[in-house]
Amino acid sequence: MELNNYLATPIQSLSEKLNNNSFYIKRDDLLPISFGGNKARKAVLFFEDLILEKSDCVVTYGSSSSNHCRVIANIAAAKGIPCHIISPTESSYPTSNSELINLFGALVTKCPVSQVSITIESKMDELRAKGYKPYFIQGGGHGDIGTQSYVNVYEEILDYEKSSGMYFDFIFHTTGTGTTQAGLVCGKILHDDDREIVGISNARKNPYGSKVVLDSVNSYLLGQDKEPIETEAIAYIDDYVLDGYGSYNGKILQTIRDVLINDGIPMDTTYTGKAFWGMKEYIKKNNITDKKILFIHTGGTPLFFDKLEVLKNAR
Question: What is the 3-state secondary structure (H, E, C) of the chain?
């Protein structure tokens, strides 16, 4: 499973015309690894590092809805190495992703969220005692490697703009653990571009949410011998988290229905559908008009099917 051999994910126009803006979507959900998405991009780079480190098992963290854990479990199974997932009991319920994680044979350890750190440490020690060399991946693919994956995406966007003669004024996406947004921001800085990178939070609130992104940006920039930036450079929007991770409302359901019916693209209530709705609300609130807007579909297709019955009744 190597992304280096794949073409850049497509960018296509959308039927949405809010405020006379032109909308486009980058289909990272079409990456040909475990239903794609931003977690697939990050996971491939992490596994390349795992191989370099000569590790022989992987440990990570995430909820039962986690796209990250699904992809990590899938790649680990393909490579024939054990995968251990630490999962908080507070967000442990059956999802399509959790079913896939079980299918891939990952070993899930559940614990209260307050015990996650100590449980991870304990699992790493246990594996070392058994003779393994475990490789730990932070939840969501956090870290410079995860950031690099979306610096790469920014390069893909630049290539598209060069070949099409089009320039995007805004790039929107869902933001959670922060490295997707950090990579895009770093790409913008490295190329000295003037455009808005807007992350729509799916759970975290400011100031913590924007600080996590800022820390990721500056960690990566310092590794490139670049000057760090200030908090004000991060457009981390927390107005649309509702009641937090996994929460949604009728407007999000209707947004998902509209995009699916009009453009044939599935989104989910936890990540992309929530962010697409938040993007539209942000555009209305800030009276953004006559712009070219790119939305990055960061994956989550299995989760679309978790809410299919609810979507059928959404009006």
Answer: CCHHHCCCCCEEECCCCHHHCEEEEEEHHHCCCCCCCHHHHHHHHHHHHHHHCCCCEEEEECCCCCHHHHHHHHHHHHHCCCEEEEEEHHHCCCCHHHHHHHHCCCEEEEECHHHHHHHHHHHHHHHHHCCCCEEEECHHHCCHHHHHHHHHHHHHHHHHHHHHCCCCCEEEEEECCCHHHHHHHHHHHHCCCCCEEEEEECCCCCCHHHHHHHHHHHHHHHHCCCCCCCHHHCEEECCCCCCCCCCCCHHHHHHHHHHHHHHCCCCCCCCHHHHHHHHHHHHHHCCCCCCEEEEEECCCHHHHHHCHHHHHCCC
